[in-house]
Amino acid sequence: MILTVTLNTALDITYRTAALTPHATNRVAEVSERPGGKGINVARVLAALGHESVVTGFVGGRTGDALRELLAAEGPGGQPAHAAVSDALVTDALVPIAGTTRRTIAVVDETTGDTTQLNEPGPTVTPAEWAAFLTSYEELAARADAVALCGSLPPGIHVGAYAELVRLARAAGRPVLLDTSGEPLRRGIAARPDLVKPNADELAQLTGSREPLRATRDARRRGGRSVVASLGAAGLLAATPDGSWRAAPPTAVRGNPTGAGDSAVAGLLSGLVERLPWPERLARAVALSAATVLAPAAGEFDREAYADLLPRVAVTEQSSQPEQESHAPRQHR
Amino acid sequence: MILTVTLNTALDITYRTAALTPHATNRVAEVSERPGGKGINVARVLAALGHESVVTGFVGGRTGDALRELLAAEGPGGQPAHAAVSDALVTDALVPIAGTTRRTIAVVDETTGDTTQLNEPGPTVTPAEWAAFLTSYEELAARADAVALCGSLPPGIHVGAYAELVRLARAAGRPVLLDTSGEPLRRGIAARPDLVKPNADELAQLTGSREPLRATRDARRRGGRSVVASLGAAGLLAATPDGSWRAAPPTAVRGNPTGAGDSAVAGLLSGLVERLPWPERLARAVALSAATVLAPAAGEFDREAYADLLPRVAVTEQSSQPEQESHAPRQHR
Description:
The structure is a homodimer. Chain A is α/β, with parallel strands linked by helices. Chain A has helices at residues 38-48, 61-73, 127-143, 161-171, 182-190, 200-207, 212-221, 260-273, 278-294, 303-309; strands spanning 2-6, 10-17, 25-27, 30-36, 53-59, 90-92, 95-96, 102-109, 115-119, 146-150, 176-179, 195-196, 226-230, 236-240, 243-248, 314-317. The first copy, chain A, has ten helices and 16 strands. In chain A, β8 and β9 (115-119) form a beta hairpin.
């Protein structure tokens, strides 16, 4: 079982409009809702890959009720009834809170295909709710083959929360992946997660460098045992104890990038649990990510495109310079 | 008691953002929710003016539950606890349906002050639900001093629905106001409501004329016993059996026009029930409308501004030409 943590879950709402006109009244042609937040998206893709997953984090209020109902209604792997029988289940272990789960609204302009995203801040989590979560998290992490910590922190959660969750997973001997940004990433990486997956902006914010290879290796020195940077259409760049690789899709894909990073996380996590060599993990992550961009629905991946892309991802090893010093995580304030 | 009908109620959500950037991710700084839909807004203003009101229409799903809870939590007149003790109550007589009440989202850009509105289409109402509504409506209308029919029709409701409701109110001997647009207005006005309140666009669409006095008188010939056109910052233009008037605020006001039309409807309805002469009704409607534009919160009116503006509204009689032919509503398809 893989445990994914989404502290700031969301009811993801998609509005389709003929065209979004700012500062005017826009009629929404079509409304759809699904359970959201990065960890929930990761779990859905993991299940589609045949990995049982458990989602935890916080949920509350009417939007929280809607989220749980939609999560329970999803078939294995988050797919409708026709899904492959090999799909595994997503189990709801979300912790109830008094506050109300946030909404995110994606307004899809059908003329341009562009999306305007509106993200509510999320409920304030109380210290007692955080304590209840920690108790549940420790029990779940102890049973997990891997743990993924995903997304932003809701109001009320201390900025070192991910560092605390990384340490607890490591104390339980479980591999832990961290996918967040800003100060929670800076604090979390210092607690030495097994894997961090920043995008180019998050990596530049963390390290001060826009040169991906340099920044990725710097992130390792800050405490990430392995660092996989997502470089958008250019694919992934990985710096690991076993070496550094670039993995790129055969052609640049056009579509909706929503959820592409979450699919990459699912690819990396499943590869970790299956003990695949790094090049295979990276190829899977890149193919899943590109197949997510190509899928018509935001956050889902196109299974046929995935099968087609997987053998065609180019993985190339980077400078074999050992960089011994980077293997010993540096102490960091 | 004044009965207001909102067939397409809404949970009105307001998002405050530092600046709305289309085709990007926007963080919402502040979220607020209130019961919405034109008839509910009208009832709130009526209550603030001391008139007991009853709201009916359809409500369903989690957003419908939220709407009812917020409606029940509102103090008299929709105001918080410090409200004037003279405020009257808004009573919930909404009819439950299987579908889910729509959301409307107003995204307020705090840099420009502009609002981008996103309106969901609303639930589909079944024939059985419409029949249940009609039974309830007839009972409520029979007890009402006046009836207001407000806003758009949800999917599933036949385009002649307002015409049907106008006829039922007239059969019960109750004065009825119609505030809608497009084909529902065209059909509804032919059923001879006592009052219609189109804005300039709705009036032009109905009559084909952009010349307000001509169009207003044409709308009377189509069946409206009295027609009050709202001309935005220019105020109101009324064509009635007693004569025609223009009513204009002392100065053009700047602010958020959301709900200004609903406040004008409340002013007209309260004046009708209080049997005020037309010039006083129009002055009240214009002052309420301008005080709504000036209020910081969308759809509320600034009570001090209302008291200040009311005696300063200029009401001028238009051409005293009797236009006898226009008093007899023409039969219309």
